[in-house]
Every structure is written in C-alpha cells, then in structure tokens.
Amino acid sequence: MRKIYLILVILLVFTGSTLKAQCKIKNKVLADGTMIYYFDPADFYITKSKSLKINIETDKENYFVALQPSPFPPKKEGKKIKEDLVIHLSNKKQYKLTHYDTQYRHNDSIMQVLYLIDQKDIEDFSKFEAIVAEINMQGTEFVRDYTFKLHKDAIMEQLKCVLEKDKE
Known about the structure:
The chain is an alpha+beta fold and 168 residues long. It has one domain: Immunoglobulin-like. It is built from four helices and ten strands. Strands 1, 2, 3, 4, 5, 6, 7, 8, 9 and 10 form a ten-stranded antiparallel beta sheet that branches. The longest helix has 20 residues.
C-alpha cells in the first residue's frame, strides 16, 4: 500500500512540474518600448522540405497568432503578405484573424507573420482546439488549408496560460 501511495505522489509531482513547464512565458521589449509576451513556437506542420510553427504573442491588450513558415520568401516578397488568416475551431465555427504585420527577425533568418485575434473571439480561442487553418501567404509554399495534426491545442493552451497570468 505504501508503495502505491509513493508512486502516486511521485507521479503527481512530475505531472505538476510538466504542466508548469508548458506555461513558460517569455518577454521582449520592442524598439518602441512595448513589452511583448510570447511562447516558443510549436511545430504545426513538418515535412522534409518545409515547416510551419505557431505561437501566441501579446502586449496584454491585443493577442496575436504568429506563424513562422520555412522556407520563406525574401524580405521584398514577404512584405507583400497581407491576406488574413481563417482558423476553424473545434466548436465548428470559423474565425477571421486580421493580418497585422510581417516581420523578419534574427538577421532575417526567421520570417514571422502576425494575425490579430478579435477581442470577442479570445474566449473561444482559449476553450477550443484549432482544427484547420486557411493560410494564404503569397510568395511562400503555404497557400492552402492545413489540418492541424501536431499541437492542435497550442493556441488554446498558450492563450489560457497568458489569460491566467493576467488574472494574477
């Protein structure tokens, strides 16, 4: 009986530390002095020739879905990306996220496209998994609908984490 109790305690400790590790919010200060909170991007789509990563970023007023495609077009072409993103959630609804910015970071080794989540949709994004993303990044290999296979819950979990931290 003691062994079972000990095993349960150990499992609870490891499970609790794993859950806290997933809620690791980072921050950075932009050139204009704005503090941005973000997560390491989660893999959303991977093949031998391309990948697409996704994460949440916020300035505590606005919430963004950030997509990082690889390979990506040169800066001149990438800055032309202006199309909005449509995400289907597990509640069977579609949400249009407005294109906010296309950024080249780390000496242009990473391209990131930010899409603004409408304030009225924040709650749904924090409760339901992403099922499909309709992506139209002209100039990249990412012009089609993508069914989430990896990390369907990445947006939901990251957004929940940020919202819980805001309450503290």
